[in-house]
Amino acid sequence: MRAVSLIAGLAVGAVFMLYPYALGTTMTPVLHSALPVLFLGVSAAIVHGVGFRPENRWLRPFFSPAVAWPLMAVGIGLVAIG
Length: 82
What we know:
With 82 residues, the protein is mostly helical. Helix content is 68%, strand content 0%. It has one domain (2-81). The chain has helices at residues 2-18, 29-50, 65-81.
């Protein structure tokens, strides 16, 4: 699962950071609200993929695929709508 998280996080992050026109040419309110969700998911997936495990038990669930993958999916869905 770590490999999938790392590959998915790097792929999504690379597409939207290296080719920003994949998002469109105008910043709509839906797109503006989708980007934080998307990049929180990307960040959590990359952190999980490299194997970091926080010592704080309250942060541990955030850096798991159960949180990262749905955040990325919702973010990509909102980008597709916007």
